[in-house]
Amino acid sequence: MSSFFNYLGARKNLSVAVLAVGFVAASVLLFMAIVTYLFIQYASLQAAAYLVLALIFDVGIAVLLHQNTSRSFWQTIAFTSAAIAAGAIVVSIGVWRGHWAGTVRELMRELTEN
Question: Which residue, 21, 33, 47, 81, is most buried by CB atoms nearer than 10 A?
Fold first, then answer.
């Protein structure tokens, strides 16, 4: 597996493409995990599967970025996790479009009532 990351490290254009696809995939998977858990009854196993896949992408991205930075691995994974969470918010805005504020407000009201 390390030879794969070394191969990507030597090819910057390919590395940037893999990082971009990884960030998008992880953000969509995190969004799907949250939506599945909140809106679909009895689908916690499916939500957990989405979350595990998002975490696998997160760790892969962190390993790839860690090779090119002087940060510790834990700082790198915290940075990538925050970027993926922000990406999931952007995905939710894209999916819900004009109804995003109302949907989030309604969701928060339901969560605080229970």
Answer: 33
